[in-house]
Amino acid sequence: MPTLLWFRRDLRLRDHPALNAAADDGEVLACFVLDPQLEASTGPRRLQFLGDSLRRLRADLEGRLLVTRGQPDKVIPRIAADVGASAVHISEDFAPYGRRRDERVRAALGSVPLVATGSPYLVSPGRVTKKDGSPYQVFTPFLRQWREYGWRAPAKSSAGSAGWLDPAQLRIEPAEIPDPGAALDLAAGEAAAREQWKSFVDNGLHRYDVDRNRPDLHGTSRMSAHLKFGTIHPRTMVADLDLGHPGAQAFLRELAFRDFYADVLHHRPASAWRNWNRQFDGIPTDTGAEAKRRFESWKAGETGYPMVDAGMRQLRETGFMHNRVRMIVASFLVKDLHLPWQWGAEWFLAQLVDGDMANNQHGWQWCAGCGTDAAPYFRVFNPTTQGEKFDPSGEYIRRWVPELRSADDAHLRKGERPAGYPAPIVDHGAERAEALRRYQNI
């Protein structure tokens, strides 16, 4: 009997355990469901990357990918019935929305099993626990146990692992793959993911531990969007790491952070939009007309702080921002402007190609001090000294803030501002003191 392989955050054919599980049962129909609820909450660049990845996957399957649109709990049972599927195979989703969706689909399928094999993570959420079975709340002990738990070698799968059914023989109406026309600075799809990874391993990994915090250098892998959509599995990547090297160890640690934040969200789904540490619910934030005006300046990259503005303009123009700069702009929004972290997190999700619920929301809470961090409230980034440290020549700032391209000092330490570049919208020293006052009052 045929089976259904329902692609979601696993848009590849190699190292794909669910593909092998589906193929073991018989011929396979490959499908992807465009969920209107997810489409509505996906920014144009992320939708573009999804569409480009689907077009590549369809080409890799020689056209044998059914892309359709609708509510998955209606569409998947209909397709399964149409092909007489013995089972529907998936990679497990651990995000709050994905878990709810899969429960509805499982119920709607009735006697046809929804079989989850593998996940987008090296170690799936819920697997790494303390001795008493409770989840870790701090990263460092999680990391130690995560390493000990370990992970499997890459799965041996490929397009040739299955006999693929032709969706043209079905009565299901296919949908157009999204193509919003957004410009991307990153190629999508499995082949592009592997090429990008090989280039980083060959050219950047050996210096990753040294260069990863420098937005003025090409020091990061740019693999986050590929990991978000599963055009490559982290197992495939780790198999190429020489863990005796500091660069490889530093990269593995970042993959562990990805698994940790997925685990945190898995155990506390409400922390997607509410403080993980509820003690911080009492901190007052600014939400009035002046707060909204400052928020617009932050979004536009017109705060008068060069490092903040460079990051926000990079985000707006490309859908990407270097991780160190994400921390700087997030700290500025929460601790200099006293705005709710949720405002910033929502803007990031609207803009980022790699926007991932667990990573994004808990990265924001780390910066806001209300997440899984032991002593965070007094950490307030100074945007100027952060710029001096991580963009010493000002090259990153000059790349994204044209008004400062000819400035002798892109960090504006002496206070001389070129015409057309805004004055600082707040005084960092005063707002740092105010942030600490608000924190200490709870």
**Secondary-structure-derived class:** mainly alpha
How would a crystallographer describe the biggest sheet? 5 strands, parallel
Sum up the overall morphology in one term. globular
Low-confidence stretches: none
Percentage of helical residues?
40-55%
Radius of gyration from CA coordinates: 23 Å
Provide the residue-averaged pLDDT: 95
Question: Which key terms come to mind for this protein?
Answer:
442 residues, mainly alpha, five-stranded parallel beta sheet, 19 helices, globular
Task: Present the secondary structure layout.
Layout lengths: L2 E5 L9 H9 L2 E7 L1 H5 L3 H17 L4 E5 L2 H12 L4 E3 L5 H14 L4 E3 L22 H11 L40 H14 L4 H4 L12 H6 L4 H5 L7 H22 L21 H12 L5 H13 L4 H14 L4 H11 L5 H12 L14 H8 L4 H6 L27 H13 L2
Parallel strand pairs: 1-2, 1-4, 2-3, 4-5
